């Protein structure tokens, strides 16, 4: 019964999306205003119905209803409860339902709270949101029904991939999806504004909090995903330039560019068409990412070609939406004036550099991700990985970070370097000093070297906008910018430090043997088997001390899951303020010794602290923007200055 | 009691884990004695694809084939071959797919031309900004 309720709710939601589309289109064309009044309630109701459907799916997973095919394929009665529930989105159908649910909730939310836009623009936006939604409803209902029954019900389910049975991965996909799909709102706003030709600073102020919110979740999702890969895969890598990772990075790059350009539009009425373009591109990247991850094309282009149903469905949606939006853009862009002019040495000038660099990196990641798929279709297999992405994206990242050091110090519209000459000279001197200093004392590669120097430079520069201000009177949005930019420096420092200074030790050890890696020394004390709810494991118990300090225990496990059968590595992490010791245990060799892998990773944790700081900066900006906006709406004459972008 | 259950389960799981348990090649999980050689081998391993996994380098994988390849890489580096020679040998044996570092060739040139085009476009865009600014005078 419950699965049928869920399915019915989904069909109803799809029907409401049709209504929302019709009402929106008619309203935007100033015809049939009766139906136009339906658009907002339809959007809100859709959000409720999708939530009901999603709760139904959670329920069937929570009680392991094996008569539902999806549950039988992906769950198991002996899984821990939390992983039963999170298993609901650990598969294709469930994750697409999550996608639809988030999209409907985002649409419902703008319909419910957003009253600042001209009504025509709003209706055009809602119809765009409904139009995109309809494609995904069709995809879900026609080719990926999550509630399909199985008769007879099997006695037991197939289980969930043990790598996914992890608390990090329980929350990573929903976070990422809120970001991914939240960008659909930016897309719909952009299309709505294009259709009604109302690209104004007011429009930008309306769009900005939505972009910021989606971007915060994307940032957190990517950060969490990176940490998950780091501790769960057992080899200490935190970014692989894997297509699945790139699929989440590309919308982030576009959204980062977008939230900087939307600030220019809000503050200075410049970069109008460019901002609209980014709004379209950002969600397009989300859709391309979903296509890559969900079509199966990554596992094998040929398998995709043999069973292309789902893949070609998403591909058709991609062509329809991205192509359609670009056509509208091409038709309308010329009718939108470019907006206010500004000097090169100005805040806008710096933000243009940011936008160009981010877009360039986006282009490179896109090419590097899609090109191997393209050649594979012609039976030429190439691999594009870190040796390509790192240096090629650095070509743009390095100038962007240099400009980031100066940009926030510049004034809007027009400024001269003379005013901030000493600050700029000091910043570049420090950066160069760190570069030379590290180069002299440590033999490390060029990219980590530049990374360390830039991290120090950006870290100091990011705090300068606070200099000489009353910290209590500094607007929250400025704090947000400072914290986010500081987070960039922190993350960069972590990445460069781990790449440059990590130490690796692979040893075969018997019980009682001494082990050491970098500044850590200790021994392997015992090895014994342990059992969990759906796994057994070999656990190694080590005691290690940092530079002769107090001993700490590390107990890595090598786990054997039995549904499905799979071996995973459960690593032990000893965290200090200046880095992490990473210990993994492997198999027993023939001579009875145990394989141990140890890494000392100086400051590696800064990568994720930085990610969290960046998201926190976004959150501060968001709160600051929304509260100023509410105040302004209460007292329209009290126009606060737009001194700092998000 | 818990320990006993664990042991029992382990005994049951044993045959599953033992499937195809050929001992790994000597250098699969053992570092080279010379730190410089090990560093070179490690760096090379991070740029070689594990053929059995999805998007992992042989330095990041427990798969048996990744272990075998780590052994090959370390053994050859220890024998005095340069990382590039080892890479070339692996490419000749497994094809371009094995290397995460695409080499410029008839099938990979767009990977290098596209970033160059993007770079030129980016510079042109910036120059256009500067030029327009000069043409429109101090008022901006």
From TrEMBL, chain A:
Subcellular location field: Cell inner membrane
GO molecular function, one term: heme binding
Endpoints of the signal sequence: none
Keywords, sorted A to Z: Cell inner membrane, Cell membrane, Cytochrome c-type biogenesis, Membrane, Transmembrane, Transmembrane helix
Pfam families xref list: CcmF_C, Cytochrom_C_asm
A single BP term in Gene Ontology: cytochrome complex assembly
GO cellular component, one term: plasma membrane
Residues in Cytochrome c assembly protein domain copies: 89-295
Transmembrane segments: 6-26, 38-62, 96-113, 122-142, 177-197, 209-229, 249-267, 274-293, 313-331, 352-371, 391-410, 422-440, 446-464, 476-496, 606-626
Cytochrome c-type biogenesis protein CcmF C-terminal domain span: 315-625
Source organism superkingdom: Bacteria
Principal location class: membrane
Membrane topology: Multi-pass membrane protein
InterPro entries on file: CcmF_C (IPR032523), Cyt_c_assembly (IPR002541), Cyt_c_biogenesis (IPR003567), Cyt_c_biogenesis_CcmF (IPR003568)
Assigned protein family: Belongs to the CcmF/CycK/Ccl1/NrfE/CcsA family.
PANTHER family for this protein: CYTOCHROME C ASSEMBLY PROTEIN-RELATED, CYTOCHROME C-TYPE BIOGENESIS PROTEIN CCMF
Its job: Required for the biogenesis of c-type cytochromes. Possible subunit of a heme lyase.
Name used for this protein in its record: Cytochrome C biogenesis protein CcmF
From TrEMBL, chain B:
GO BP, one annotated term: cytochrome complex assembly
GO molecular function: metal ion binding
Coiled coil region boundaries: none
CDD domains (UniProt xref): CcmH_N (cd16378)
Limits of the CcmH/CycL/Ccl2/NrfF N-terminal domain: 27-135
UniProt superkingdom: Bacteria
Keyword Membrane: yes
GO CC terms of this entry: plasma membrane
Localization in the cell: Membrane
Membrane association type: Single-pass membrane protein
Record-linked Pfam families: CcmH
Transmembrane segment boundaries: 109-128
Signal peptide limits: 1-18
Keywords associated with the record: Cytochrome c-type biogenesis, Heme, Iron, Membrane, Metal-binding, Signal, Transmembrane, Transmembrane helix
Protein family (similarity comment): Belongs to the CcmH/CycL/Ccl2/NrfF family.
UniProt function note: Required for the biogenesis of c-type cytochromes. Possible subunit of a heme lyase.
Protein name: Cytochrome c-type biogenesis protein
Species per Swiss-Prot/TrEMBL record: Aurantiacibacter luteus
Lineage of producing organism: Bacteria, Pseudomonadati, Pseudomonadota, Alphaproteobacteria, Sphingomonadales
């Amino acid at each position: 019964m419950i699965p049928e309720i869920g399915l019915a709710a989904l069909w109803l939601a799809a029907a409401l999306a049709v209504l929302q589309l019709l009402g929106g289109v008619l309203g935007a064309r100033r015809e049939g205003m009766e139906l136009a009044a339906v658009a907002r309630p339809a959007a809100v109701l859709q959000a409720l119905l999708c939530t009901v459907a999603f709760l139904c799916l959670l329920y069937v997973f929570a009680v392991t209803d094996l008569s539902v095919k999806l549950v039988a394929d992906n769950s198991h009665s002996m899984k821990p409860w939390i992983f039963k529930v999170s298993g609901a989105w650990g598969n294709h159908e469930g994750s697409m339902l999550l996608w639809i649910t988030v999209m409907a909730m985002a649409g419902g939310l703008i319909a419910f709270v957003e009253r600042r836009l001209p009504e025509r623009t709003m209706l055009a936006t809602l119809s765009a949101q409904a139009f995109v939604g309809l494609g995904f409803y069709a995809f879900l209902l026609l080719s990926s029904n999550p509630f399909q029954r199985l008769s007879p019900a099997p006695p037991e389910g197939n289980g969930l991939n043990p790598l996914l049975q992890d608390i990090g991965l329980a929350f990573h996909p929903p976070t990422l999806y809120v970001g991914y799909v939240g960008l659909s709102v930016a897309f719909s706003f952009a299309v709505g504004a294009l259709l009604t030709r109302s690209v104004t600073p007011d429009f930008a102020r309306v769009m900005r909090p939505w972009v910021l919110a989606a971007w915060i979740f994307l940032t957190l999702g990517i950060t969490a995903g990176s940490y998950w890969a780091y501790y769960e895969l057992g080899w200490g890598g935190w970014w692989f330039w894997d297509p699945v990772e790139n699929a989440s990075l590309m919308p982030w790059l576009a959204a980062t560019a977008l939230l900087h350009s939307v600030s220019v539009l809000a503050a200075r009425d410049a970069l109008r068409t460019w901002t609209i373009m980014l709004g379209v591109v950002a969600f397009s990247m989300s859709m391309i990412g979903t296509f890559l991850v969900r079509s199966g094309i990554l596992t094998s282009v040929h398998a995709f070609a043999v069973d292309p149903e789902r893949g070609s469905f998403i591909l058709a949606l991609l062509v329809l939406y991205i192509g359609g939006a670009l056509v509208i853009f091409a038709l309308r862009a010329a009718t939108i004036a470019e907006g206010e002019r500004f000097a090169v040495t100005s805040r806008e000038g710096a933000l243009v550099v940011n936008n160009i660099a981010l877009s360039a990196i986006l282009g490179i990641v896109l090419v590097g991700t899609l090109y191997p798929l393209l050649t594979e279709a012609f039976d030429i297999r190439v691999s594009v990985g870190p040796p390509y992405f790192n240096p090629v994206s650095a070509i743009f990242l390095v100038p962007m970070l240099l400009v980031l050091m100066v940009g926030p110090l510049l004034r809007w519209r027009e400024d001269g370097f003379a005013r901030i000459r000493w600050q700029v000279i000091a910043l570049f001197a420090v950066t160069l000093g760190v570069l030379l200093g590290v180069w002299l004392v440590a033999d490390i590669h060029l990219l980590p070297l530049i990374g360390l120097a830039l991290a120090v430079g950006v870290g100091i520069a990011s705090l300068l906008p606070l200099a000489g201000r009353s910290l209590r009177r500094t607007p929250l949005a400025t704090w947000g910018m400072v914290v986010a930019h500081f987070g960039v420096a922190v993350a960069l420092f972590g990445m460069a430090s781990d790449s440059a200074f990590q130490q690796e030790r692979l040893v075969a050890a018997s019980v009682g043997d001494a082990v050491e890696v970098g500044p850590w020394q200790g021994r392997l004390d015992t090895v014994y088997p342990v059992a969990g709810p759906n796994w057994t494991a070999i656990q190694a118990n080590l005691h290690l001390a940092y530079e002769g300090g107090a001993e700490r225990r590390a107990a890595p496990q090598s786990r054997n899951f039995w549904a499905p059968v799979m071996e995973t590595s459960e690593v032990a992490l000893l965290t200090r303020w200046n880095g992490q010791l990473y210990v993994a245990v492997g198999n027993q060799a023939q001579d009875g010794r145990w394989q141990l892998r140890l890494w000392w990773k100086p400051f590696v944790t800064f990568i994720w602290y930085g990610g969290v700081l960046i998201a926190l900066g976004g959150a501060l900006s968001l709160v600051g923007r929304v509260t100023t906006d509410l105040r302004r709406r209460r007292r329209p004459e009290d126009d606060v200055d737009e001194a700092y972008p998000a | 009691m818990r320990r006993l259950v664990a042991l029992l389960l382990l005994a049951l799981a044993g045959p599953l884990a033992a499937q195809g348990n050929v001992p790994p090649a000597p250098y699969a999980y053992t570092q080279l004695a010379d730190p410089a050689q090990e560093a070179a081998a490690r760096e090379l391993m991070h740029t070689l694809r594990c053929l059995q996994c999805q998007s992992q380098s042989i330095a990041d994988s427990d798969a048996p084939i990744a272990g075998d390849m780590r052994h090959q890489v370390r053994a050859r580096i220890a024998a005095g071959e340069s990382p590039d020679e080892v890479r070339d040998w692996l490419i000749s044996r497994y094809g371009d797919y094995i290397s995460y570092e695409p080499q410029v060739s008839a099938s990979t040139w767009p990977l290098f031309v596209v970033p160059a085009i993007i770079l030129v476009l980016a510079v042109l865009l910036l120059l256009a900004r500067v030029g327009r600014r000069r043409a429109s005078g101090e008022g901006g």
